[in-house]
Write a structure and sequence with these properties.
This protein is α+β, with helices and mostly antiparallel strands. The protein has two domains: 10-91, Orthogonal Bundle (DNA polymerase, domain 1), CATH 1.10.150; 105-237, 3-Layer(aba) Sandwich (Cytidine Deaminase, domain 2), CATH 3.40.140. 48% of the residues lie in helices and 14% in strands. It is built from ten helices and five strands, in the order αααααααββαβαββα. The chain has a five-stranded mixed β-sheet with strand order 2-1-3-4-5, with helices on both faces. Strand 1 and strand 2 (140-148) form a beta hairpin. The protein is elongated and about 70 Å long. The chain starts with 9 loop residues before the first helix and ends with a helix.
Length: 238
């Protein structure tokens, strides 16, 4: 057999690449996205079945992207070199979105803020409570996940948020958490938590600009809906 003979699926691989160069990922199935990523570290092997198996094992495209190299290697046909494309693109996307957020004013760009946070919070089966710490010019200092699990007024501690803000010398903060149900509308508990956090922070001279609730490809902004302004007015009356 000639060494120059194309491997099985090479024509399919080329068609995927040409399709992407022409129209991006529009029209791609999730397994085709994974397949294309696997080809970055796999010069001479058909990746279609491995891509389908990875998607079946980790359920969603984000699930595959967030799997570790060790977890990816549990899929037949995927080894460390095959996993390169997946982990590379995930890391590049994380850095790109973070830099885009840092270079802009996150207060006036709730959509950019959502897109960055959604990348790391979607398809989670438990709630994550993140805090973005800002300096006096509203530049991002740090992003941290402070609480994990079912979020209630008794599990999110204002003193821990204030302590972290003071440690980072933050002048302002933005809160964000996800709803695994996919519905971003805030619960009564979410409103109560936001109010407690806002009051605690304001007492210490720390401004709360936003609380974003992340759902399934959508979000709810406490600021856009006037809740932050209303809570500040209530605090000023005390």
């Amino acid at each position: 057999m000639s060494n120059n003979k194309h491997h099985k699926g090479s024509g399919h691989r080329q068609r995927l690449r040409e399709k992407f160069l022409v129209s991006g990922l529009s029209g791609f199935h999730d397994y085709e996205v994974i397949e294309l990523l696997l080809t970055l570290g796999t010069p001479r092997k058909d990746c279609k079945e491995a891509a389908k198996d990875a998607l079946e094992k980790y359920k969603t495209l984000p699930g595959v992207l967030e799997a570790s190299v060790e977890e990816l290697c549990e899929v037949q046909g995927i080894g460390p070199k095959n996993a390169l494309g997946i982990k590379l693109i995930k890391s590049v996307a994380d850095r790109y979105l973070k830099n885009r957020l840092i270079e802009k004013d996150p207060i006036s760009n709730s959509r950019d803020l959502f897109e960055y946070l959604y990348h790391s919070m979607r398809d989670k089966n438990k709630e994550l409570f993140k805090v973005i710490f800002l300096d006096a010019k509203n530049r991002v200092i740090k992003l941290e996940t402070l609480f994990t699990g079912t979020l209630t007024a008794s599990s999110v501690y204002p003193r821990e948020v204030v302590r972290a803000a003071l440690e980072h010398h933050a002048a302002a903060v933005i809160f964000a958490h996800n709803h695994p149900s996919g519905d971003p509308n805030p619960s009564a508990e979410d409103i109560a938590i936001t109010q407690q956090l806002l009051f605690a922070c304001k007492t210490m001279g720390i401004v709360v600009h936003e609380h974003l609730v992340i759902g399934n490809n959508t979000y709810f902004s406490f600021s856009d809906h006037g809740h932050i302004t209303r809570m500040n007015h209530e605090f000023d009356k005390l």
